[in-house]
Amino acid sequence: MATSSAAPRLNGRVIGICVAAALGGFLFGFDTSVINGAVDALAGEFDLDPGLQGFAVSSALLGCAAGAWFAGPVSNRFGRVPTMVIAAALFFVSAIGSGLAFGVVDLIVWRVIGGLGVGAASVIAPAYIAEVSPARVRGRLGSLQQLAIVTGIFAALLSDAMLANAAGGAAEPFWLGREAWRWMFMAEAVPALVYGLLAFRLPESPRFLVARNRIDKASQVLHDFTGEVDVNLKIEEIRGTLESEKKESLRDLVGPRLGLKPIVWLGILLSVFQQFVGINVIFYYSTTLWRSVGFEESDALTVSVITSVTNIAVTIVAILLVDKVGRRPILLTGSVLMAVSLASMALAFSFATLTEGADGSQTAELPEPWSMVALVGANLFVVGFGASWGPLVWVLLGEMFPNRIRAGALAVAAAAQWLANFTVSTTFPALSETSLTLAYGIYAAMAAISFFFVLRKIPETKGMELEAMQEDAKVERRQRS
User: Which H/E stretch holds residue 354?
Assistant: First the structure.
């Protein structure tokens, strides 16, 4: 198949629409981390045991899996932009409902509704950004999704800390007599509203428009936003990858290996490894974790905010390097750093002393120097993840699949990611009661295995046009070459 010979120009408009689309990632990060500062307060409010506490924290992830699963078919039928608007509405409703929850049951319901929005955003933002970005900067623009996610995490942790400090504690009354933890949830309504309004102004994906035979509109988007010089040639390239498609469905993902195409399995395993290294244990439970090693609540919240700032900084580094160094070298380096830092945390917690509280719960207390080892290890882990697996998995998921199965394959991979996230987040409270050394040892082993997975299975996609990713065999041959 022919390829465009002229290099597309980069203009501010494509950056602008990619930033706007990535706001879904901001809400993704905000929604999944806002519970960090509220978890202890709501556990006391609703008298939750460790098992129910873990489910309350991770229940949103069930909605994430469902939202990711359905986002592909919905975006294929109605478009990428309408799917973003739906996600924004789900975020808004969840924020208000969670803040006004009467008990743990309706809190879980509202969190699941928010999870539907997170899941949809996790699919549609990387797919949209990949489809409107020029190939030579697609890695950097695709990484905006992860930058938005970690910025959302930072905003959630910062607002949690500010509200808790202003009220004198997350469980203390604040505005209108409602506890601070409730306002932590309701704060999300503001960015949700902004995201929805911006989404209305975004142009539709040119590849979706070509698939629906709206050629004039697709040409306009390619010229005005993507910066294509030879628009007609690009339209023909897109048509060539879509011509065999009558109507995309999940049946297109079926293949000879355990029921799915090999490239789909690679996406699923990338997603699972991203979660099985335990990154969200740091962001969902970091305040609780730092309180266990001697920090007061306000100090623990501050440390969590500092950790999230570190995450933002290293994500920016990844954005600067991804289109120069490539995807594979950065992932491999990240796997090594994560394995080492997690192993150091596992070692540190082997020296912990368990104390039992009045409610029967156990708290791990670390002596010096092991409390500092755990703190440094956790932040090195965030550096390793934030500079590699955090942003690059989303970049790869947005670009590694052929045009005709991209939305569906990304939906399946993202759903697998959320199920893996749910598994890790739900099991951590009970696992930590048994042994934090075991918990972090498992995550360290997953990081080590991820190194060999990338080394043997993941292709390099730096600089490739999306239209070049047509068949699994072609991707595999490029990997071996």
Answer: strand 353-356
pTM of the predicted model, to two decimals?
0.71
Residue 306: HSE in the Cβ half-sphere, 13 Å Cα cutoff = 13
Q: What's domain 12-480's architecture?
A: Up-down Bundle (1.20)
What sections of 243-352 are H helices per DSSP? 262-276, 279-292, 297-325, 327-349
CA dist., res. 437 & res. 217, Å (int): 56
Cis before 369 (ω within 30): yes
* Residue in 246, 241, 267, 248 with CA at minimum distance from that of residue 465: 241
State how far the alpha carbon of 475 is from the alpha carbons of 141, 272, 470, in Å: 22, 21, 8
Residue found under tokens 């999940």: 250
Residues 6+ apart with CB under 8 A from 128: 21, 80, 81, 84, 202, 205
Q: How far apart are CA 343 and CA 227, in angstroms?
A: 46
Asked if omega into 126 is within 30° of 0 (cis), the reply is no
Q: What is the DSSP string of 378-413?
A: HHHHHHHIIIIIHHHHHHHHHHSS-GGGHHHHHHHH
- For the chain, domain boundaries: 12-480
Rounded to an integer, what distance in angstroms lies between the CA atom of residue 403 and that of residue 208? 10
Q: What is the pLDDT along the chain (481 residues), one digit of tens a residue?
A: 444 444 445 567 788 888 888 888 898 888 877 887 777 787 788 887 767 777 777 778 788 888 888 887 888 888 889 999 999 999 999 999 998 988 888 889 999 999 899 889 888 888 888 888 777 777 778 778 878 888 888 888 888 888 988 888 888 888 888 888 899 999 999 999 999 999 988 888 888 888 888 888 888 888 877 777 778 888 887 777 666 544 555 566 666 666 778 888 899 999 999 999 988 777 555 655 666 556 665 666 666 677 778 878 888 888 888 888 888 999 999 999 999 999 998 898 888 776 665 555 556 677 788 878 887 888 899 899 989 998 888 788 877 887 777 777 888 888 888 888 888 877 887 777 778 888 889 999 999 999 999 999 888 877 666 555 554 434 444 444 4
Q: CA nearest 142: which of 469, 472, 422, 466?
A: 466
Q: What is the DSSP letter of 247?
A: S
Compute CA distances 213 → 79, 81, 242, 404, whole Å. Answer: 13, 17, 11, 14
CA proximity to 323, closest of 137, 454, 143, 134: 137
d(CA 203, CA 135): 19
Q: Which residue has the tokens 């306002």?
A: 183
Residue whose pair of structure tokens reads 């970005």 in the numeric block:
133
End-to-end CA, the chain: 19
Residue 280 to residue 274: CA distance in whole angstroms: 10
